[in-house]
Design a protein that fits this description.
The chain crosses the membrane at residues 254-279, 315-341, 353-375, 429-447, 671-700, 721-750, 770-791. It is a multi-pass membrane protein. Keywords: Cell membrane, Membrane, Transmembrane, Transmembrane helix. InterPro entries: ABC3_permease_C, Membrane_comp_ABC_pdt. By secondary structure, the protein is α+β, with helices and mostly antiparallel strands. The protein folds into four domains: 1-52 and 278-398, no CATH class; 55-247, no CATH class; 400-454 and 665-805, no CATH class; 463-656, no CATH class. The chain has 26 helices and 20 strands. The strands form four sheets. It has a six-stranded mixed sheet. Strands 13-14-18-15-17-16 form a six-stranded mixed β-barrel. Strands 3, 5, 6, 7 and 8 form a five-stranded mixed sheet that branches. A hairpin with a 6-residue loop joins β16 (572-580) and β17. The longest helix has 39 residues, at 716-754. The chain is elongated. 36% of the residues are buried.
Length: 805
Amino acid sequence: MFFKMLKSDLKRKKGLNVILFIFICAASILVFSGSVQIFSNFTREATAKRLCKSSDTQFWLLSERFTEEDLSSRISGALKKEPDVTDWSTTKIAKISETAIEYPHNDLHENRYMFMLKFQGLTTMPREHDLVYDLNDRPFCVPNGCIAIPIEVQSTLGVKVGDKVKYTKPTGEVYELEICSIFKDNMDSNVVRYIVSDADYEVLTENHINSYIVYNIQMKDANEESIADLKERLYKQDVPVLSIVSSSSMNDDVIFMEIISVFVIIVSVFLILIIFMTIRFTMIADLKNEEKEIGMMKALGVDSFSFRWLFAAKYIAFAVIGGIVGIIAGLPIAGAFINMFGPDFILPERWQMILIGVISVIAIIIMMIAFSLIVMRRINKISVIDAIHGENRGERFSKRFPMFLHRRKKMSVPFFIALTDILMRFKRYIFLLISYSLGIVIVLLGFNVRNSVINPKYTSYWLYNNLDFSIRWNEELQEDIFNEAKNTGIYFADIVNKRLADADIPAHLDSMYATRGYMKIDSKEKFFDILWKKGEVEKKIYRKGGKVPKLANEAAMSAYTAGKLGINVGDVIKVFIQENNEDKTGYVENERELVITALIDYMEDGDPIIIMGSEYEDGFRSSYYFTGYTIDAPEAEKPAVIARMKELFGSEQVVDGKQDLKNSVKQFDTLFMLFEYVVGGAIVLILVLITYLYMSIFVAEEVPETALLKSLGFRNISIKAWYLLRMVILLVLSIALGELYLWTLGTIFFGSFMTQYEVTGMKLYFEFPVSFIVIPLIITSAVLFTTIINLRNIKHIGIWKISEE
């Protein structure tokens, strides 16, 4: 009987059945791949720790210093005394310029900027820590005459295994190497490693002046604070460490995967809601059509649980078959998802992927079946009387909506009917409103997240005042300016400003002096970058309720860390700051009491800041922060000024601010563009299918009403106008709700999501034409076009159909 009922259901409304089945299959695939991807994201660090033996932190020492007598034993002794250090090893790495490796069929200058942002290093195969694996998650070796390159380089340049590259030594010798492998690298994201054999490394780095010994350190409880504590203790033991980096720091791949996870969850929930609403709507429509038959069966005494299962036959079959399709197709899609957006991620073991995905899909199947049976409870409301009288029990004489056509002389009849239909039967359209409004929110979110991140206002979270232009500091230019700074004692930014002034170019770099400081909290030290410079403090944008710090004992603090520490505006804190000694040849640590006058939204990335008042001048100038690239000219003249700067520094070194921002977040831009067009397009397609499904049901259900209107003399075009205007009203309401959701809940969600990257105050910036005109028009056009297609069947409805009323 179950299969007979299923066969009967499938024969009716074939188009609706196809759409519902597509939705269920898509949801199952998305849930399978999404759950695996989310699981992979959560277990990434544990997997990397287990398979790659990734180090928690590293410190780098110039090789020439390592040869000094007793230095190696001093470092080893210092590490042995550290109770938090569990293991360490050393590797060799040689810094190479971004132009050292020439790839086939690639113009290096087109992609040079990406490599300038990171440390490029030639190294040997790691053996103890920070191990690497090929694209199949397997170990590999590098023969003599070959080179292995990381996947981020391969994905940017499009090279493949077997291609030949040319490596140029600093001394000018050129060597040809064959790419033998592409590998995943879970080491620090700011280091790009190129791996060669041990023998080739000795030849390629002979007499290399920028070679390092890297200590790869594993710790018991590695976190931001423990790593910072280790760094300070090593400094105090006079260990000559060039730099310390955290291998476990947040990198772009992790951010991409987390953003993907959020969108996968959103789209999955959206699809599941659509499926549930569709099941409810179609089942209620079917039960309504079968009301007399159900009442008759009840009159005959047939009313059992098995009887109710028969009406859910189609939905149970679709859920089971769709779940199977989701399991089969979800596994390869899940792997492709992870490799696409987290190319350096080591995939979970296959059995784990299958187990997680299958459990998720089974949960969805159970939910669909349970929901179908819950909707079946409507059978309880159908009585034996329905078998005799059907719906003619007085409902048609209930109180109507208080709107009358004769009082609305300027309102067209189709619009009046559409409006009263929605107002009188609003519950009928609630699920359609929810579907449209949620779909619109997702499409708008994809665009506005991209527009908000790739936006000049976004740079304020980097402490930038302006970003009219940018200078790409390649190795040659940096070395030239550093040499002048060393000889003259003038700071980097001041040298650049002097060169701009000497060339009579109206532009300058903004910068602030920086040193280190810390607060003692629960016997631990919390480190900060201390920034100051008169004239720059006033240019920053502080959070509402604060005021610009002016006095030497006033300061502003980055809001994320202030929130974690419970520090508010008006609080007094004690900070140990590195300040000039008496003869200004070095620094001493002085304790200062500071009044927090303001908080500032800043992307900390593990380095919170304290901005001192304008009158503060005692800090030890250990480094500096660039805080703006400003052109002192009208907007129309800025391109000409940038052209003059290109003549001064080189055409490849200077770009305008918008281009620099796009380059800085290029990988984010690719991801957001994918969501904007691919996910946005998919959501529009889903809305089209929903419209087709619901309109098919509306047209079928409203045959008596349509026939009645025809008998009263209404033409097909007027009846179609009724349907169209009803959809327009629903769309206008949905768009308004979608915009409202986005700019209230969406903004809150976006700001909360970004706090995991240690930044506060981030919000969505809308672009008026696209957010409020273009996207609503695209969705409206798609929905109305689908509606018009469905209305072709109206001309086939004859007046005699009124007898069904």
